[in-house]
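Re: [help] complex structure
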Amino acid sequence: MLRVELDIYSGMPNPTWTLTDPEEQELLDRIVAQPTLMRSADSAPAVLGYRGFFVSVEKEDDGAWTKAAKAMAGQLEVSDANADKVKAAFANGISLPTTFRIGTLDPTQASVVAGDGSTDASAWLLNTSEKPDSSVDDFLREVAKGTIDLAAVVTATALEETEAAVSPAGLGMTCSSNYYTGTDYSAWNSSYYVTRNNCYCFGSNHRANIRYASPGKRTLGYFPGLSYTQMRTGLFADGWRDSCVAARNLSIACVVWPNYDFHFYRKVNSSGVWGHKPGGTPAKSTDNSGRVIYNPQTCNRGYYTSWYGYYYQDNNTAYVA
Amino acid sequence: MPKSSTQDPAFARVELDIFSGQPNPQWEMSQEQADLFHTMLQQRSTIVQAELFDGLGYRGFIVETAPAPESGGRMIVNVQGGIIKVVDSTGQQVFYYEDTNQELEKWLFDQSRQHLDQALQTLVEATFAK
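Output below.
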């Protein structure tokens, strides 16, 4: 008998429910078909809100899961067709644990694998919570479902963007720079400037006092848009290049929250630290996990999942509007 | 809290602080909403300085209020994760309050729905389920 826990609360106990026999069988079938759906029990993501499902064997019984697990451990004396099938499918050594995690992760987590089928499994498992012994109410279901749906949209869009792009631009940290502003961001973070300049101002090292500066606005007169091609159009118009053809003074990285927003990072010292300024908040060197950024491509970028590459400028400042 | 008025603030503009480069969703409260906002704000309890999330993604709501000039002027109010930060018109005085059960934040979120698409609503809503 399997018990499912909707991992969603921080302080209060998470709501739980028990799977019926047919549901237990379906969960087993889904995992047999795709073992990567299971994650270790201690892989809880450090985020607030919906964090997937925690599944545990509540009681060893004649259910499909227990039978299959026993068969795999060589403990089942009587042959069972279903258990044998699972055993054969997992011949490569995967076991059926007594506790594990499953379910779509919030798209802010780097471990989301686009197209891994976890959103479908998550939606199905969430639906099994609609039963009398469940403490999941409609509100919680809506919240969890919303995050699952959002993850599906974000990962699908990310795939689309990646496929559309010829290749992410730039050579990244292999380009040399000879001008750094350092990790003292006080020039950006005083009360006057902090709310008047955005990530593009910071990336361009230009305190333009334009809260919504964007690529292309100064040189083209408009912001071309958020697609890979449009962003590059705006950046190139503003003087950015994606290859090392000279000693580069400014190096930036461009990322996009598909369909919603762009964001920039700038290399700020010779040790390889990158800084950024999320909107009207203070500039800093740490990512959404609080870690110092040495690689903007792999740091925690929240919903800014599309990587548009590195760009360079042969000036200490790239003027923006 | 900086000197302010519960009477007839000239306006209160709200910003859902969520984007980095692009403009955040913004709207203006009605006079009635602005009055209620001030009333709710003045009912909060003071707390010691608190840290607000300042990374990428949802960062709460920013309310800019401009009460009648004789009552103290402009204030910038950040409402995020159970914390309210109020900065006076000079930018020099900062006050912190507790937003019990994120009541004020949820009230602002309800107002924001008509300005947001479903995905953004869901994203913000998910932060309340903690």
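Strands of chain B lie at 11-16, 26-28, 45-46, 61-66, 75-80, 83-87, 94-98.
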